[in-house]
Design a protein that fits this description.
The protein is α/β, with parallel strands linked by helices. The protein is 41% helix and 18% strand.
Length: 220
């Protein structure tokens, strides 16, 4: 298989699980994250960079220019519980979850449109539908991600570039800070469900994982 993917935010959690699955399926993968990677595969290369920093855009441009990309996945994300003594963390949450996504799309979209078909995937959250007193910046940044990704999907219809918004429930990873975690899923399970949907000639605009939690959130 002569296909290449870029995964942003892949040193742990779902991003790492996606990277391993893609490599196992014969893809070449470029990873970008603020932490080094322990992966040592011939088909893998890694760049240490932070989506919040100015250098990220030039590093991503360099990686995009190496060869054609069929799949790009934005997994970078943070979220902290609200604390009036640490309001800077709210700013960092928006910079990572939403501004980092926008910077990635700014650099990636021209490349993807020149070499269709291609798919851009962003990992959002079902917190996008909630008013969260526990983590308002996280919920608001994910709401912004959902609106941006799904609106882009409409704007790019017919361009050869598909945009997919993945709305996640609770995953056994660093960001799962809630005391209650109904239908908690392992990163490997989530990664497999994502790839089964997005590696397709007609990827959906939205993926809810798990769907039954999405139903409950919608009712709430």
């Amino acid at each position: 298989m002569n296909q290449r993917a870029i995964v942003i935010g892949n040193s742990s959690g779902i991003g790492l699980a996606l990277t391993r699955l893609l490599l196992g399926r014969g893809w070449r993968v470029s990873g970008l994250s603020r932490s080094p990677s322990d992966l040592r595969e011939q088909a893998y290369d890694h760049t240490v960079t932070d989506v919040r920093e100015e250098a990220f855009s030039s590093e991503l441009e360099r990686v995009l220019s190496l060869e054609k990309v069929q799949l790009m996945i934005y997994c970078a994300g943070i979220g902290e519980l609200f604390d009036t003594a640490r309001l800077r963390s709210d700013v960092e949450t928006f910079e990572t979850n939403l501004a980092g996504l926008a910077r990635s799309i700014e650099r990636a979209l021209p490349h993807l449109m020149q070499n269709p078909p291609a798919t851009f995937v962003g990992l959002s959250s079902m917190a996008d539908a909630l008013r969260s007193g526990a983590a308002p910046a996280y919920a608001a940044s994910k709401a912004g991600m959902t609106q941006y990704l799904e609106s882009l999907a409409v704007a790019l219809r017919g361009s050869g570039v598909s945009v997919v918004n993945v709305r996640l429930g609770f995953v056994d990873a660093k960001m799962a800070k809630s005391a209650r975690k109904p239908w908690l899923l392992q990163p490997e399970v989530v990664a497999d469900r994502i790839l089964r949907k997005v590696i397709s000639s007609n990827p959906p605009r939205r993926i809810n994982i798990p769907r039954r939690l999405a139903i409950l959130v919608g009712i709430a």
